[in-house]
Design brief:
- The chain is α/β, with parallel strands linked by helices.
- It has one domain (2-304): Rossmann fold (3-Layer(aba) Sandwich).
- It is 43% helix and 12% strand.
- The chain has helices at 2-6, 8-29, 46-53, 69-74, 79-86, 119-133, 152-163, 192-198, 211-226, 258-266, 269-274, 279-302; strands spanning 61-65, 110-114, 140-145, 168-174, 177-178, 181-182, 203-206, 232-237.
- A six-stranded parallel sheet has the order 2-1-3-4-8-7, with helices on both faces.
- Strand 5 (177-178) and strand 6 form a beta hairpin.
- It starts with a helix and ends in a 16-residue tail after the last helix.
- The protein binds thiamine diphosphate.
Length: 318
């Protein structure tokens, strides 16, 4: 694929389009009850995963949260195996045992996602310590929502990563809300960039709707981590279009103004990146990704459920 090598906007568009359309298909399929786990969608937030993961090597390691489809897809995850995982089928990337909320696939460096807020962060720091001790060239990227920074685990992890100069990029997806609670009702002081810097971690803040700038800043931060300069933090402003959990819109809850959501949908990052491409290339990417998604759904449908006897497998190490 031509754009793989020399056109970051094309790579970003492909990745963001795949995430958007896979999640739109999840919305379409969810009422059929074929998807067996709760889903936390990243529609509206695609630019963050796509921009950061574009700079990663297959051997680099990711940790994330229950909002993990975007990370998996942006890291080059296997689309059919992700769909089969959501269906609870045996061909899923975790044999149907992880589902959407705990998506995991070490074969592509997706080491873990967790439903328990902030727990992935300390796991990510442990992985970064292991890589450093092994003198590995690989690095760790840890994604979390701004709600995670309310937790002690975030503070402990930032301190330890800084102290040990670990090879890790902390990526905060600040979508303003922890479920329905606004960040301004939770966060004291001058903000997350300053908090990170207080731990000695160079940090930056990138506004929403600047996907190419985010791509460039994430690249610079990751390059510093790769050079062995220790951890970096990047706060990415973003916005979730759908409900905290589930496939639907959530306007009925009235915790955010309709006009705020409408303005975000209007100023769609996917369209911003798409507008940087010639029509022909954009349409080619869309057609290729549509085929990939249709094939992935067919694969998940055709797969079978695991045998009952598998239920106790993979619980403890043998
Ligand atoms: C330790 C813990 N506390 C509370 C919850 C309930 N909970 C689930 S998601 C969530 C909000 C987290 O928001 P944020 O970290 O900003 O991520 P987002 O959902 O916006 O991606 C909360 C409080 C939980 N799962 N785990």
């Amino acid at each position: 694929m031509e754009e793989r090598t020399n056109n970051p906007a094309a790579r970003l568009y492909r990745s963001m389009y795949l995430i958007r359309r896979v999640e739109e298909e999840i919305i379409r399929l969810y009422p059929t009850d074929k998807i067996k786990s709760p889903v936390h969608l990243s529609i509206g937030q695609e630019a963050v995963s796509a921009a950061v993961c574009d700079h990663l090597e297959p051997t680099d390691i990711l940790f994330g949260t229950y909002r993990g489809h975007a990370l998996y897809l942006a890291k080059g995850g296997n689309v059919p195996r992700m769909m089969a995982e959501l269906y609870g089928k045996v061909d899923g990337c975790a044999r149907g045992k992880a589902g959407s909320m705990h998506l995991v696939d070490p074969s592509v460096g997706m080491m873990g996602t967790s439903a328990v807020v902030a727990t992935g962060i300390s796991n990510a720091v442990g992985a970064a310590l292991a890589l450093k001790m092994q003198k590995s060239k690989a690095i760790v990227v840890c994604f979390f929502g701004e709600g995670s920074t309310d937790e002690g685990a975030w503070h402990e992890s930032m301190n330890f990563a800084s102290l040990k100069k670990l090879p890790i990029l902390f990526v905060c997806e600040n979508n303003f809300f922890a479920i329905y609670s606004h960040v301004k009702d939770r966060l004291a002081g001058p903000g997350l960039q300053a908090r990170s810097e207080a731990y000695g971690i160079p940090a930056e803040h990138v506004e929403d709707h600047e996907p190419m700038k985010l791509h460039e800043r994430a690249g610079a931060a990751l390059a510093a981590v790769r050079r062995g300069e220790g951890p970096r933090f990047i706060e990415c402003m973003t916005y979730r279009w759908r409900d905290h959990v589930g496939p639907t819109e959530d306007r009925i809850h009235k915790y955010r103004p309709d006009a705020e959501l409408d303005a975000k949908i209007e100023n769609d990052n996917l369209k911003i990146v798409g507008s940087l491409l010639p029509d022909e290339l954009r349409k080619l990417i869309e057609a290729e990704e549509e085929k990939r998604i249709a094939d992935a759904i067919a694969f998940a449908e055709a797969s079978t459920f695991p045998e009952d006897r598998e239920i106790y497998d993979h619980v403890f190490a043998n």
